[in-house]
């Protein structure tokens, strides 16, 4: 293993600036160094790495294969150091340039993400938020443990130790049919529903599946001849066929107002699906992460309240 004992770590800042600007003069301007000092630093970098690192061309400094290979690791390490120093000084949302990664596999994940993004931009214009709305992979807990993923909004709580699961609101399930469907009506019972064909989304793996998707409800959909990838495809399909579909209750208002659908409850006791904010407790003292958690909680709960799924009393629990 190569020792860093004799390496001036300031040289890594010069390497990063050279790679990103492709110019000795512009790299120096970014770092507050003279062109001579930047050139001297490049010479020391070349000696330390035993490679030219950057080749002069008429238009720019072109990185060598070695420079291209090491830049991602150097850049990630410097970013991590910058964030650590920033957090040690205290998190200031207005001036921070941190990046956060959030997973929102809830069917309304894209809408929640845009709402969170807009709220963050108003408070912290320099903060970068990246959202992923795919169903969480099995390695999601590991990603959060390693700090690659900051938090998740999901209907499956983390079962491993040292994870925090905070309930944001309770969702549910409803059955939808297109406007003008010849047999659909509010209050349909199991007998009427059993006569209809359903479109359904792909079923999650057992460990990633809400338990309410079992029994009579699943039996209705099990033999569906039309299976789509995501819940967001269900209203599009239902509105153009005589198939019925099942949607989260949080999408009921969209189904009614934007698609003009008939929305009816699943027969029997109300279906309740807790929606969780999941994160690793190792981030508890991270002031920036605390800001992110508060922001996501506020915006997702506000969206749920607008859908009639959250009361102020429940939000305070």
UniProtKB/TrEMBL annotation:
> Where would I find the HTH lysR-type domain in this sequence?
7-64
The chain's coiled-coil residues are none
Q: Which UniProt keywords apply?
A: DNA-binding, Transcription, Transcription regulation
Q: Which PROSITE patterns match?
A: HTH_LYSR
Q: Name one Pfam family in it.
A: HTH_1
Q: Which SUPFAM superfamilies match?
A: Periplasmic binding protein-like II, Winged helix' DNA-binding domain
By sequence similarity, the record places it as follows: Belongs to the LysR transcriptional regulatory family.
Its recorded name reads: LysR family transcriptional regulator
> Which organism is this entry from?
Roseomonas nitratireducens
